[in-house]
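Annotated sample (chain length 402).
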Amino acid sequence: MERFSNVKNDLQFEDTETELNPQFIFTSQYRSLVASGIACRISNKGLNQDEFIEAIKLQLNKLKADGEKKPIVIGAIPFDTSAETEFIIPESSTFSETLVTNHVRHNKTAQCASLSQVTDENHFKAAVNKALLLSEHTHLDKVVLSRAVDVETTTRLNANDMASTLYQQNPSAFIFSIPQSNGTTLIGASPELLVSKQDDHVISNPLAGSRKRTNSITDNQQISDELWQCEKDRYEHKLVADAVSNHLSPFCNTLNAPDTPSIIETSTMLHLSTKIEGKLASKSTSALDLAYALHPTPAICGTPSALAKVTIQHLEGYDRAQFCGAVGWMDAEGNGEWVVTIRCGIIKQKSIRLYAGAGIVKGSDPIAEFNETEAKLNTMLTALGLQFPSTPIQTRQSVATI
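Output written by the structure step:
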C-alpha cells in the first residue's frame, strides 16, 4: 500500500460534533481516515450513473490542479442506485496507517426507552415463505430479505462516541460514521469489503453464509465445521463469489478467485469468505467505477439481480435507503475503499434505526432466517453500547421512517 504524506500515528476523534462541521470516519485494516468540514457536495440529481462518477472525478482533479495535496471524496451509495445520492469533499482529511486505541474515547452506555419493529416477525417469515415459493416457479436463485427496528434512547446519541465503541470492540472491521445532509448519520462496522483499489491492484472480499460466534473455542470450531459443510450456505456463498468474479473480470488482466471459501471470524460472527484479487488492465479504472459495477452483489440483493430487487420491493415492506448499499472514499488517482453497508444504523438525535438481513435460497427455513436477523440486531445493539433497562421496554410495530 502507498504511504500517505499526511500520516498521523493514531486515530483521534474530536470532542465536538455539529451539523455545520461534521466529522467523517472510515477505518480499515490498511488505514484509517478522519475528515471534517464540507468543501463541496456532489449530487447525482439530473445525472446518470456514468455522469455522476465523471462529475466526482472532475471535481477531484480540479482540486488537485489547484494545489490540493490529496483531495478525497466520501459518500454512501444507497441500495437503489437510482435514488438521490450525495457525496462530499471534506475541507480537511487525515490518514493513519496504524490503528491504535489509546486516544479513542470510551462511549457512555445509552439507555433504550423503546424499540419499534418496522416489520414484525410474522411479516418477515411470511416474506421468506413467499420468496421460497418464487424460487420454485421462477429463476430466482437467491434473495436477501431484511428487517429494521427503530430504537429510541433517553439521551441524544453521539456518532463519534458510537464509532469509537465499535472500533474498540472490533478494530479489524470497517468502521464508518458518515453524516448525511438530512441531519442523520450513517454508522456501522461492516465485515465485508466490496472493493479496494490501489494503483492497479484490486481486492474484493465477499461474505455469504454466517453463524453466530460464541465465547468457546471448542464450540466455535464445531460451528465453523457445520458452516463449512452446510450445502445451503456453500451454495449461497458460491452465488456471491461467482458474481463478484464475473463483474470484476472485464476490468482485470489477471484475477485470482479461490475455488473454495475460507472462514473468517469477527468479534461476534463466523462467515464464509472468498478473497478475490486482481490486476487492473487500466490504472484509470477508479475504485468508484468498480464499486458501482459490483453493487449490489448477491450478498445483499440476490441473483438474478433484477428479479431479486423486484422481490425485495414487493416483500420487504420498507425502504432500505443506505442499508445494503456501499460506503467509502476515493482520491483523485481513483484509489479508495468501499465496503458493503451492513451491520449498520442511521442515527437521528435520540433514535437509531438498525438493520439485519438473511440470504434466502432453496432450503432456507423461515424460523432460522428470522433468528439470524435477531442475532445480528442484538449484536448491533450491544456493539453500539445501547443498554436495555431492567424493566421491559415498550415494543411496537412501526411504519415510520427516519
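Annotation: Residues 1-20, 99-107, 390-402 have pLDDT under 50 and may be disordered.
Annotation: DSSP finds eight helices and 24 strands in the chain.
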